Amino acid sequence: MGEETTRIHDEIEALRQMSTAQLKAKYREVFGEETRSNHKQFLFRRIAWRIQANAWGGLSERARQRALEIANDADLRIRAPKNFLKDEPDERRTAEACVPATADPRLPLPGTRLVRRFRGKDVVVMVRKDGFEHDRQVYRSLSAAVRAATGTSWNGFAFFGLGHRPWGERGERE
Question: Which pTM does this prediction carry?
């Protein structure tokens, strides 16, 4: 290692021993501005990068140009314009679409009978297109059907074991 490299390495290693307050002071020295961060690891990394960039150069010219291109293409507005929602929307920039509701992937197909033994009796719920049927009564949610059947508040998916399990019970791949 050269003398310059050793000096940079030692300076960065000295950062590891600094408190957060000392790192904030070093940040002010290196960047010329205050930091609002109190995260010690963040401050260490930013200062260490800046020390190296000052010694050996920062981004390549090609990387700088690419960053400028990206920044120019981005909409950097943080707040909405003052006249936002006061004027009529520009029809050329407005689109409306209906997004169809998708069925919950945890549910079996309509027509499936869900059965579970609970306190000595079978709880049977039929999955329908328009809801869930128990004792000829249709409910909007599986949980409501299970609540009616058991008299107890349940998550319907948990009651029938319909949760998503990509692997087996103990996490092994099947």
Answer: 0.38
